[in-house]
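Service request form, structural biology core

Requester: graduate student, group of Dr. S.
Request type: structure prediction, single chain
Budget code: on file
Notes: please return the result as structure tokens.

Sequence provided:
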Amino acid sequence: MPLPDVPQPGAVRIRERTPDDLPALARALAAQQPHTGYPQRWPLPWPVESFLQRQGELGAWVATLGDTDVPVGHVSVTAVAGDGPEVDGWVAGTGRPVEELAAVSVLFVDHGVSGLGVGRALLEASVAFIRRSGRVPVLDVVQETERAVRLYQRAGWQVVGEARPSWLPDTHRPVLLMALPDAAG
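Core staff response, request fulfilled:
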């Protein structure tokens, strides 16, 4: 489902990710990792493009700024499937079956444009997509990434549980499992 561009010149624009975006996104991910710690495992033990493009992906978008078409941020939405601590926590915490959930995934912003609303715009685009699909938005966030936790909480996300996925370093607290309730509910 395509998302409309933001009409103001110089503003954050959101568009669907294309294969041509992957090299720029890989560079942006690598550049922001020392500042944010995301992803937790770095360098990745597989190609960065495999991290960016997830199995079960329902959609993916990039953010650009101004008149340039160079991606400065990324988000994807993935189907929630299978089992494991995160899935079990989201199902228990939302009271919804796994088929009614969709996860915000691989959300990051080039460190050089941090604070300009890029992350918020990407989050809003992914949530709108999930809502249009009739699903409940969920995500996990590493507690030590306090800036990300605050972004989600300001946007109305609620903690519905905690989990310790296999990729989480032993030195970290469990990840927070979050869900975004309906505005009406």
